[in-house]
Design the sequence.
């Protein structure tokens, strides 16, 4: 029996505000434990929360970017549960009346366009963090993160493959970073995902029992965990068993999920409106102010790159995958206006370099100005393509501009026929058999002769000139 996966994702994005959602404590990452706290976020008796307006601004922007309807009135609720990192014994969130509903995000997977519905977007506060002692059965509580503003984005169960789930998450993260409302750093926990997964017989419309998978801190882990869960649930059903509704933990080192606890339903949290916070009223003027501040988003940039620069859909998708990479591409174009050439070098040599070094584009050792300078020299035939690769490596190692490296290393391309002629004569004379075969019709040997000349000139000869001279001399 074949099964169809049914996947819904709950994404928590930490917002880039300087202070917490209901108090003035700093949200900076990496401070000593329990130093960014106050009576409000510690849940001391008698304190009152005050909503951070910037959190609402950011959430409205995300709602607009994902085609959600911004609700004129929303409410905060108390989500009640007991855990050591939750000092109040409840989390302030939104439940029945979230700030945004009924949106969608279009993604592309294996050449197919898919629309993933977004059920809701709501605001809430983060909990603290437990630090487990590796040597003793002791856990410590750090409440610095308590009260940090989160935006939760809940998808419809429209996702049907792990690959689609990964692409949806990448697109969401890109939008958050384009809007500059979240840094989307999964390692620091500012972009977190819980996956709800079930399977149903192919052709059925009745969803199966779902499990929730937590501890998914990379796109790769999300996809691997979903593949594992699909296989696990399929095996249970084929053996005549029933999938338990539960929360499971992904163990990346073992490549498997393990049972964590029974899955809670909404009524288990005993939601009720927070009596300390008034209903949030968002009028049209507020929404219009946020709409006026919206930047060009990834899908819009991708369409522009295809229409204006003649790039393929695949290339435009790569270049708009992050705001930083897209900005780098456009910075190069201001210096060297040949989009396809710039795109090829960025997606080939530059991204290859960054992947090898394990760094992001914002930490690239080759600036946009330096890459454009290299491409100008290549375009003007000052250097050859082979030398350009060498210069690129030197730029990455030293940070120097291409012009300086070419001058210091004497890498200027030789186009003078009087200097190339004797080298060509020597190569032909040294390979008489190959010359006869070429003249006998084996024209592919031209590449051999060009390679020999380039070798003799240490890559400095202009390949175009070399080809012309060889064609004349070989007949």
Sequence:
């Amino acid at each position: 029996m074949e099964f169809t996966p049914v996947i819904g994702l709950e994404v928590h994005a930490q917002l880039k505000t300087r202070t917490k959602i209901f108090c003035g404590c700093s949200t900076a990452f990496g401070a000593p434990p329990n130093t960014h706290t106050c009576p409000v976020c510690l849940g001391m008796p008698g304190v009152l929360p005050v909503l951070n307006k910037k959190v609402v601004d950011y959430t409205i922007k995300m709602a607009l970017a994902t085609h959600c309807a911004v609700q004129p009135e929303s409410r905060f609720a108390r989500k009640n549960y007991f855990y050591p990192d939750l000092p109040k014994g409840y989390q302030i969130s939104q439940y029945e009346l979230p700030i945004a509903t009924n949106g969608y995000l279009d993604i592309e997977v294996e050449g197919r366009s898919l629309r993933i519905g977004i059920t809701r977007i709501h605001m809430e506060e983060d909990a603290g963090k437990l630090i487990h002692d590796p040597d003793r059965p002791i856990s410590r509580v750090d409440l610095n993160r308590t009260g940090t503003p989160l935006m939760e984005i809940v998808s419809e169960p429209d996702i049907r493959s792990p690959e689609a789930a990964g692409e949806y998450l990448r697109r969401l993260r890109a939008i958050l970073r384009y809007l500059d409302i979240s840094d989307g750093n999964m390692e620091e926990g500012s972009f977190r995902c819980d996956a709800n997964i079930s399977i149903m017989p192919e052709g059925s419309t009745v969803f199966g029992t779902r499990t929730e998978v937590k501890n998914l801190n990379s796109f790769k882990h999300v996809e691997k965990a979903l593949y594992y869960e699909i296989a696990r649930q399929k095996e249970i059903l084929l053996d005549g068993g029933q999938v338990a509704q539960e929360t499971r933990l992904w163990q990346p080192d073992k490549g498997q999920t393990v049972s964590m606890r029974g899955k809670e339903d909404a009524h288990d949290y005993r939601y009720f409106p927070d009596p300390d916070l008034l209903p949030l009223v968002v009028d049209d003027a507020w929404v219009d102010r946020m709409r006026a501040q919206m930047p060009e988003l990834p899908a819009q940039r991708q369409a522009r790159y295809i229409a204006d620069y003649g790039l393929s859909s695949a290339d435009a998708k790569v270049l708009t995958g992050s705001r930083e990479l897209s900005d780098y591409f456009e910075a190069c174009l201001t210096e060297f206006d040949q989009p396809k050439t710039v795109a090829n070098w960025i997606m080939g040599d530059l991204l290859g370099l960054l992947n090898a070094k394990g760094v992001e584009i914002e930490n690239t050792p080759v600036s946009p100005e330096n890459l454009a300078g290299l491409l100008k020299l290549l375009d003007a035939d000052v250097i050859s393509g082979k030398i350009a690769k060498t210069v690129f490596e030197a730029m990455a190692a030293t940070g120097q501009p291409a012009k300086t490296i070419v001058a210091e290393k004497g890498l200027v391309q030789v186009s003078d026929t009087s200097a190339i002629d004797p080298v060509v004569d020597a190569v032909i004379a040294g390979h008489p058999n190959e010359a006869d075969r070429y003249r006998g019709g084996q024209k592919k040997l031209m590449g051999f002769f060009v390679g020999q000349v380039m070798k003799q000139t240490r890559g400095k000869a202009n390949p175009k000139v070399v080809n012309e001279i060889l064609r004349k001399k070989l007949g």
Summary: The radius of gyration is 29 Å. The chain has a mean pLDDT of 93. The chain has three domains: 3-289, 296-398, 417-474.
